[in-house]
């Protein structure tokens, strides 16, 4: 006899639960305490973590921009040129270096940056 | 300069049938041949730098390939890239590569077919309709290897669906695109070899020495006399004086005078 209805009484959500949860546990692997081992806690932490990650992408750009500003201000100050004058002179000379590039030079190639300030100073005096 | 001896060549060529050419070998095991080391870290000669680096690159490439070669023989390895941070959890990491050295000899476009779905009436498909009227025929003529299908579907947004030779598909929502934008996206699809939306591309650029002039320190632009100064120093503790000396004042007066003379001449 084949009982085809009995099987319908088994309430199973599906065969893929292990892998669904594994996707979450992979992200929660480095979390603290029960959040890395218990699914219902982990899923909450993971959702928050992902939200923070999305928000953080925008914030990172803002933070980096601020960092470059600060560094450029400091570097210009060391070479006795105003930040605004420096940027304006460079743009008038068609030197299209953005803040990131200039700050990289100022940090890793300080003499090149000094040369840039000299060039900008000469342009501003003319 | 020869990069490989006969021995090394035989080593490299004695790999399984999958990697018949050096290019295939490097494709399987991408090696960082761009990291250059200074031979003598004490001598900082910028003139000779390039030659030394060139030699070092060759050496390093040889050595690293030699290291990889014998281990590789007889085992199937897949190079795994350890992810460093959390931010690309859902993107797989990969170096950029082509299938079967496409382009080294012959280039075969990897785009197989393209389906343009659009609505005949809705305004969001306007750009798509314009593109179909103007630029589509040229696109099809220029790319005889790509099959273009048009599917007018009512009450649905405009879509480009691309299928590649490796079987992967990619679809781009073209709602409210202009015809130029659609043309640009089609060009991108044409030049791709697979769907790249799920990959984060790693860079082949690497350097162990990011600075040639030496990185900035607080002492880079300071007077070296400070090395011989005993702190606390009264002179240096005082604020800097910006008063000009009498000599400088005289020079300034002279220059002013000259300018005034010039102005008078111009006025006349």
From TrEMBL, chain A:
Pfam families: Ribosomal_L20 (PF00453). It comes from the Eukaryota. Gene3D superfamilies: 6.10.160.10, Ribosomal protein L20. Keywords: Ribonucleoprotein, Ribosomal protein. The keyword Nucleotide-binding does not apply. Transmembrane segments: none annotated. SUPFAM superfamilies: Ribosomal protein L20 (SSF74731). Belongs to the bacterial ribosomal protein bL20 family. PANTHER family: 39S RIBOSOMAL PROTEIN L20. This is Ribosomal protein L20. It comes from Molorchus minor.
From TrEMBL, chain B:
SMART domains: L51_S25_CI-B8. Pfam families: L51_S25_CI-B8. Residues 120-193 form the Ribosomal protein/NADH dehydrogenase domain. It is found in: Mitochondrion. SUPFAM superfamilies: Thioredoxin-like. Keywords: Mitochondrion, Ribonucleoprotein, Ribosomal protein. Belongs to the mitochondrion-specific ribosomal protein mL43 family. This is Large ribosomal subunit protein mL43. It comes from Molorchus minor.
